[in-house]
Specification:
This protein has 116 residues and is α+β, with helices and mostly antiparallel strands. It has three helices and six strands. It has a single domain, classed as Aspartate Aminotransferase, domain 1. 28% of the residues are buried.
Length: 116
Amino acid sequence: MPQRVDVEKYLSSFNNPMSELALKTRNKILEIDKELDEEIKWNNLTYKKNGPLFAIVIHKNHINLEFWKGTDLYDPEQLIEGTGKRIRHFKIKDEYNISPQMEGFIKQAIDLDKKS
């Protein structure tokens, strides 16, 4: 059985309108793969299977969906941002950003995890 956190309790610690957007992003992630483990690390919702996959990072005016192997994701439209060695993020400013492109990045990250 996959590990889950008390997401309502976690999100209540944020006095931030982005909490609802984070919840919608989380629901989309778990809709794509119900077998992902979910935990809180570095005060973020994080997801893993064989290894770490991604995290939801809440900011004041947006959330980032951070991908641990972001540099390995196919992104011809250059929607993923960041300059770290491996981690990249997909910025979500409103529910319209919870899009087929975001879903594609999630699925790619899960597929990369299966191959490692």
